[in-house]
Structures are given as C-alpha cells and as structure tokens.
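Entry type: protein chain
Record version: 2
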Amino acid sequence: MKSAEDFDLVIGFLGFWALVLLVITVAAELTAQPALGWALGLLAVLLALWGMLKLRRRLPARTSRRIS
C-alpha cells in the first residue's frame, strides 16, 4: 500500500501549480489576453487534485515521520 506521505507530496505539488495557474488565468483575463488554455490547464490540475484528495482519504493516517 502507498504511503500517505507520498500522496501528501503530490497533493502539495498539485496545489502549488493550481495556485500558479489561477493567478496566470486571472491575469490573462484582466489584460484581455487569451486565457482558455490556462483555464483548461487549471481545470485539469484541479481535477487531478480532487482525485488525489479522494484517494488520500482512503489511506490510514500517518503514524510516524520518515527521518532519512
């Protein structure tokens, strides 16, 4: 079974890129630049994030931290 820590890492990575894509999409909209591609990328990242969160809930909670 996968470690919950691995899922937490991927969730953090996807969350970071979702925030970056949100800022880029809003900036593109405000400056009247094409934003459809950025918005579709944001949608894909958000769907992946949602899927990872659903999978993460099925795993048991972490009991200890990895030292090495």
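Comment: The chain has two helices and no strands.
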